[in-house]
Amino acid sequence: MSNTKKAYIAGGCFWGMEDLFRTRPGIVDTEVGYLGGQNENPTYKNHPGHAEGIELTYDPNVTSLKEILDYFYRMHNPTTIDQQGNDMGSSYRSAIFYQNEEEKAEAEEMIAIVNASGKWSNKVVTTLEPFTQFWTAEDYHQDYLVKNPNGYTCHFLRFEESFIKG
């Protein structure tokens, strides 16, 4: 696994994002957790400022960060501030946690591509936040929709066609 990379994103309830990403080509592992908040060792009941997010381990020989972000922008609504479906609050914000300036530039480029596409009627409000630490969520949240196939999710593929041309 030495040739893998990690990406950190948030786009609403982490269950649905994990469920959709787990089967994507090049995704080696998924883990749900908390990112970008104010306390150490956050829990579901105590995660002030943290977003419900996902750690994606991927094989860069099979997929790229740009392709991951393309899919991310097709499976959640990035135009609502602190909301996905019925879930409201900063925990459910759309965010990309970049690990270096190259990732930040790729995220900015994807936001420009998504906005220019006109597919969403409003502009993207995804925040770009420097990655600090990923805190793994409680075990009962991991693979939640596999364990509970009728569980709640607000994530689904809204656009079949990629934002990336070619």
TrEMBL record:
Task: Tell me if Acetylation is a UniProt keyword of this record.
Answer: no
Catalysed reactions, as listed in the record: L-methionyl-[protein] + [thioredoxin]-disulfide + H2O = L-methionyl-(S)-S-oxide-[protein] + [thioredoxin]-dithiol; [thioredoxin]-disulfide + L-methionine + H2O = L-methionine (S)-S-oxide + [thioredoxin]-dithiol
Q: Please provide the record's keywords in A-Z order.
A: Oxidoreductase
Output the Pfam families linked to this UniProt entry.
Answer: PMSR
Q: What is its EC number?
A: 1.8.4.11
Tell me which InterPro entries the record gives: Met_Sox_Rdtase_MsrA_dom, Met_Sox_Rdtase_MsrA_sf
Q: Please name the Gene3D superfamilies in this protein's record.
A: Peptide methionine sulphoxide reductase MsrA
Q: Where is the Peptide methionine sulphoxide reductase MsrA domain?
A: 6-154
Q: What positions does UniProt annotate as the active site of this protein? A: 13
Please name the GO terms that the record assigns under molecular function: L-methionine:thioredoxin-disulfide S-oxidoreductase activity; peptide-methionine (S)-S-oxide reductase activity
Query: What SUPFAM superfamilies has UniProt attached to this entry?
Result: Peptide methionine sulfoxide reductase
- State the function annotated in the UniProt record: Has an important function as a repair enzyme for proteins that have been inactivated by oxidation. Catalyzes the reversible oxidation-reduction of methionine sulfoxide in proteins to methionine.
- Of which family is this protein a member? Belongs to the MsrA Met sulfoxide reductase family.
Q: What's the protein called, per UniProt?
A: Peptide methionine sulfoxide reductase MsrA
**Source species:** Algoriphagus aquimarinus
- Record lineage: Bacteria, Pseudomonadati, Bacteroidota, Cytophagia, Cytophagales
Query: Source gene?
Result: msrA
